Amino acid sequence: MSDTSSNQMWGGRFAAGPDAIMEAINASIGFDKRLAAQDIAGSRAHAAMLAATGILSDSDAKAIREGLLTVLSEIEDGSFEFSTALEDIHMNVEARLKELIGDAAGRLHTGRSRNDQVATDFRLWVRDQLDAADAGLVALIRALLAQAEAGADWVMPGFTHLQTAQPVTWGHHMMAYVEMFGRDLSRVRDARARMNESPLGAAALAGTGFPVDREMTAQALGFDRPMANSLDAVSARDFALEFLSVASISAMHLSRFAEELVIWSSAQFRFVTLSDRFSTGSSIMPQKKNPDAAELIRAKIGRIFGANVALMMVMKGLPLAYSKDMQEDKEQVFDAADNWMLALAAMEGMVRDMSANTSALEAAAAAGFSTATDLADWLVRETGLPFREAHHVTGSLVAMAERKGCDLSELTLEEMVSVKDTITNDVFDVLGVHNSVASRTSYGGTAPARVRQQVARWKEILE
Ligand code: ARG
């Protein structure tokens, strides 16, 4: 067929082929070729069902199902020739099937439309990505658990406003991210459960008069059930939006952690050393070791959240059922998925490889009067002062230490007593950072014993 003739799949009523610009704006094969495996799985399930229900002869179904495997192997080995004139993956596959098996190929599209076909393919593709994200998150959580276990009692500064607040343990800080990525994991699983329904058999929008068995195709493709409304089945993209929302939230978590790694690996902090495997050098400054992986992870949220916004804008205001606007769903989701998976894997690698500089962490933990709250708590506990008053007394002691240029623990007992005469030598016990973290034994607190409990709990969850 020459380029000026009408489309062989739908061109019956057309006298002329599309303008080159029309072809360019219309074609999705440049990107939806990534749906090839899902498209062929969907078509094979559909053909088997057409035969089982007597809509198609067994011999045609067999030829179609085998021919489709040949097409898949051609796509996988790179010998398949994709054609822009054939618009999309669905018509590229079907046209090649016709070359391979002849007219029987034309019976495959019975009781089906590209609308339920693409919705099915895309659901299968997104479902695979949710499974990949599940695995990526579990691997990252395991890497964090290993860090938390190793450093359950290493002390470091805990921050609010990025100002030293109270000492915490390294393990506790790692476990905070375990909680975040754990919620991401649960969102991934929720999304998967919700989206795992089959659009196939909804046909163009209204269902079909052929006696199709939608339960059968749903089951063959691993869906829990067929979608209950054909209009919804072909026009819903909330499963893709939910994927992008979950990905966005997870990318936000990755970005926050990445930012901490950028700060922590700086010469000013020196909290961690990132491995050479996840760092780069500078072409002009020989001393530099840059945390590029962390920086790029920090940035990935931009395109992932951008995809979420872009698809939301595409979908808003679309009347039921299918509109071609919806072809714009794929590139956003493909790009977001690729980058989310990459960010998860890079973060896992960085976390596995990084080493904490425990002496720098400990020195920083003690700086900035980080145990001032412990002192105030001690005054409440041991001398019966109301907390507000204890807060005030401690403030005076901090001011005194600041004037002297020393830490709270370096004030003498006499100096302390000059501010509050009920203070005794015992106070020095709570001014040490190790005592401070060990005392925070409330559920969810930073005490090493609590951190170890949480590590054990998560290991059990991941069993
Ligand atoms: N390439 C199209 C898409 O991605 C497939 C569905 C086309 N349906 C149609 N009625 N033109 O959405």
TrEMBL record:
Query: Where in or outside the cell is it found?
Result: Cytoplasm
Query: Which InterPro entries is this protein grouped with?
Result: Arg_succ_lyase_C (IPR029419), Argininosuccinate_lyase (IPR009049), Fumarase/histidase_N (IPR024083), Fumarate_lyase_CS (IPR020557), Fumarate_lyase_fam (IPR000362), Fumarate_lyase_N (IPR022761), L-Aspartase-like (IPR008948)
Its UniProt entry gives the catalysed reaction(s) as: 2-(N(omega)-L-arginino)succinate = fumarate + L-arginine
Annotated GO biological process: L-arginine biosynthetic process via ornithine
Q: Does the keyword Kinase apply?
A: no
One molecular function GO term is: argininosuccinate lyase activity
| Residue ranges crossing the lipid bilayer per the database entry | none
Record protein name field: Argininosuccinate lyase
Gene of origin?
argH
